[in-house]
Amino acid sequence: MEGVKGLESDLEAMRQYFRSGKTKDTAWRQSQLKGLLLFIKENEKLIFNALKKDLGKHPVEAYRDEVGTVTKSINFALHGLKEWMSSKTAKLPRVALLSSAELVPEPLGLVLIISSWNFPFGLSLEPLIGAIAAGNTAVLKPSELAPASASLLANVLPSYLDIKAVKVIQGGPAVGERLLQQKWDKIFFTGSARVGRIIMSAAVNHLTPTVLELGGKSPAVVDSLASSWDKQVTVNRILVSKFGACAGQACIAIDYILVEKRFAPTLVELMKVMIKKMFGENPRETNTIARIVNQQHFLRLKNLLRDPAVQNSIVYGGSLDEKNLFVEPTILVDPPLDAAIMTEEIFGPLLPIITLDNVEDSIAFINSKPKPLAIYAFIKNEKLKRRMLSETSSGSLVFNDAVIQYAADSLPFGGIGESGVGKYHGKFSFDTFSHYKAVTRRSFLTDFWYRFPPWNDYKLLL
Ligand code: NAD
């Protein structure tokens, strides 16, 4: 589909195709999932090239976060599909004598997927897997800010899929807004809370159910770990998930760290050593850190970092290379809490550390902010773990690692409050794009006579 020319008639054709029942076939769904798999397999090199061009991602990172993850998810869906599609029996009250009931998953119809640029394949295809597996027709609008990836999706993906059922439309906010004027059976959006609000208000017109996969400031709490092994593992995991996953341009990246004052110097020293080990003495020359997506985001990060209020907080890094859209992995200790770096989502390789008198204070700190997409808690103390679990609220909670939850098909992925609405991944994706129809089957054989007027003293037995 080129741009939005002929949009209304194209969408009407897709609705009619859905009504033909074709997309409900198990075989059709399987063939589309296999088509997606083949797209990934046959175009792996092109995908790596596009990710290099758009974001400077190293192929190993690109494989881990996009090609490999999506392949895993498609295989998981292919394996589970028949079971997911099967109806599930349900219990009825006694009054429905000689009856049976079931939940029958049915596709919603025509769905819209709008995705973000930071994982342009993963965040487009992961929801598409769910949409197809559930038997829907779908329009995908990737982000214009990763143009090489968007163009590969628009120009190559359709030849692997049923083009009557899946369309890719390229474009930015204007195209997005045009799409939002149409009637959809579900809108699945990945992006910022600002645009999320636009999506939700547009959805009101047609009462369209909406999933919003947003972001925010996800904290990591680091306890004063006793053994040097635990400290090292913690530092390795923090660094790879912050700087080694799209250079911190990830919705579930650690945004900032909370740590006890007495442990902060040790943590910083360990981080300095490991950053050099992972990304070299001259990180500008490394190809293992992704680049900032464009100049606008580069300047946004530059402003966060060049804010006079945070200058004294920078303890490592801080150099910028505008020509190459490179921001050095940077650590800050105790920037003012009202500085933009601590009030806005960072979405880049800047890592503030906030010190606390007691690690237990981290719970109150987190609870004073909007509910995050993720909380990472590097702690061994079981009592504190229990408190973290029961006293905080977030899309996900990971003990002793970060970002790894994204790869789990068995866990719902999504936010809460400001970090999002709805969930997906694995069977949750299938459920997100399905309606569970409640079907009750009654026999004509018999009934309780007191179910019918005139009423008497009997109470209806439920
Ligand atoms: P964005 O909201 O600017 O754009 C997201 C998508 O919306 C793009 O495709 C864009 O073209 C489209 N869009 C922009 N304006 C629109 C409008 N007015 N109407 C309709 N569509 C419009 O976000 P972004 O810069 O691509 O991504 C960064 C944000 O996304 C961060 O906040 C990040 O945390 C979040 N994010 C969340 C997840 C998640 O899975 N929860 C994943 C990645 C990114």
From TrEMBL:
<dbReference type="Pfam" id="PF00171">
    <property type="entry name" value="Aldedh"/>
</dbReference>
<feature type="active site">
    <location>
        <position position="251"/>
    </location>
</feature>
<dbReference type="InterPro" id="IPR016161">
    <property type="entry name" value="Ald_DH/histidinol_DH"/>
</dbReference>
<dbReference type="InterPro" id="IPR029510">
    <property type="entry name" value="Ald_DH_CS_GLU"/>
</dbReference>
<dbReference type="GO" id="GO:0005737">
    <property type="term" value="C:cytoplasm"/>
</dbReference>
<dbReference type="GO" id="GO:0004029">
    <property type="term" value="F:aldehyde dehydrogenase (NAD+) activity"/>
</dbReference>
<keyword id="KW-0520">NAD</keyword>
<dbReference type="GO" id="GO:0009414">
    <property type="term" value="P:response to water deprivation"/>
</dbReference>
<feature type="domain" description="Aldehyde dehydrogenase">
    <location>
        <begin position="11"/>
        <end position="439"/>
    </location>
</feature>
<dbReference type="InterPro" id="IPR016163">
    <property type="entry name" value="Ald_DH_C"/>
</dbReference>
<dbReference type="InterPro" id="IPR016162">
    <property type="entry name" value="Ald_DH_N"/>
</dbReference>
<comment type="similarity">
    <text>Belongs to the aldehyde dehydrogenase family.</text>
</comment>
<feature type="active site">
    <location>
        <position position="213"/>
    </location>
</feature>
<dbReference type="GO" id="GO:0009737">
    <property type="term" value="P:response to abscisic acid"/>
</dbReference>
<keyword id="KW-0560">Oxidoreductase</keyword>
<protein>
    <recommendedName>
        <fullName>Aldehyde dehydrogenase</fullName>
    </recommendedName>
</protein>
<dbReference type="GO" id="GO:0006081">
    <property type="term" value="P:aldehyde metabolic process"/>
</dbReference>
<dbReference type="InterPro" id="IPR012394">
    <property type="entry name" value="Aldehyde_DH_NAD(P)"/>
</dbReference>
<dbReference type="InterPro" id="IPR015590">
    <property type="entry name" value="Aldehyde_DH_dom"/>
</dbReference>
